[in-house]
Specification:
Elements: H1 3-18, H2 29-51, H3 56-68, H4 73-80, H5 91-100, H6 103-106, H7 110-122, H8 134-161, H9 163-166, H10 182-191, H11 202-211, H12 219-227, H13 230-237, H14 242-259
Amino acid sequence: MKLTEEKNLSRWFKDYAAAFAGKSGRLAPMLQLKLDHSRRVSAIAAGIASELGFAPNDVRAARMLGLLHDVARFSQFERHRTFRDELSFNHGARGAAIMQKCAALSACSPADIRRIIAGIRHHNRACLPARLPAPELEFVKIARDADKMDIFYVLYDSWKSGALRRSPEIALMVNLDGGINPGALAELRRSGRVSVANIRSLADFFLLQLSWVYDLNFRPSYRLLARRAVIDRLAEVLPSTPAILREISRAREYARRRARPG
């Protein structure tokens, strides 16, 4: 992606998001949250791409994918007042449809268009898509890793600051005070995953995030996980039961191995 193309896409996204501001000229708090999230994911995606040794043009494309990955969240919240896909629409698929009509993206190379559309379309899937060409799959992986890395921050910071009590939509309106669902813990022990169907409380949401330790794709992502002390923060908020402590220890060792060179 050329520098001029990156600037045009950045300008398009800025104008697109601003169109959802109210009469005050300010975005609703939940949309401002998504705008800030998109900007941080953009920087994380570029950092991962850079550490992977991507050429500058490809780093720029990764940066734009990070910025645009949640483009459908704005219309989703405006129309449905929720970020829950099951109550509205699949924001990955809708975001891809929005960007397929974007003139600023259409002016980019066919390869960049394919990589960015694929990354937006599939970043929120439970599992990686099958049978994508390697260049597109690599960008899907970057989008997924960068998105997770910022959601780690958003949920912990919202819990720590008390913002979750004021805006429970941040955690998709789950029960903020419930305990761990035994089914979620059993699923994590069995498969290293926690399905959305097993999330019934904020504690389960944090357990889901612990399962994401097994779902990152790149060594730079694991290095960032360590630098940000993500597992330590999850240990802070999760119940300190023997079963949970075992899962934290297991995730910590897995992340340590994945962060090593070689």
